[in-house]
Amino acid sequence: MARVTVQDAVEVVGNRFDLIMLAAKRARQIADGTHDPKVEWDNDKPTVVALREIEEGLTTAETVAADERAAEQEQESRPVLF
Q1: At what angle do helices 16-32 and 46-55 cross, to 10 degrees?
Q2: Domains assigned to the chain
Q3: Of 31, 77, 62, 66, whose CA–CA distance to 41 is shortest?
């Protein structure tokens, strides 16, 4: 697959600082294995996959925030063992 440039993804997000935060959060989700990639993996690093997802419009700040809230709620609902 062709290389992803940050400029292409900035045009989707609109702000390079927001892009970096969004890509980092999504890459962490992919690297942790908590969420599957939405594009072909192609043996790329999680950051490249995250940028590709953002560029294609498959990942937005809203979807990442919703995933984070769901993970927090799941963690809070787990019983605490002493």
Answers
A1: 130
A2: 6-77 (3.90.940.10)
A3: 31
* Residue given tokens 């560029």 in the structure block: 55
Q: Is the pLDDT of residue 7 over 80?
A: yes
Q: What tens digit of pLDDT does each residue of 22-62 get?
A: 999 999 999 999 899 999 988 899 999 999 999 999 999 99
CA distance 59 to 53: 5
CA distance 62 to 59: 8
pLDDT of residue 82: 76
Output phi, psi for 34, to 5 deg: -75, -25
pTM of the model: 0.84
Residue 64: both structure tokens together:
């990442």
Rounded (10°) CA dihedral 53, 7, 14, 43: 20
Spatial distance between the Cα atoms of 73 and 31, rounded to a whole number of angstroms: 21
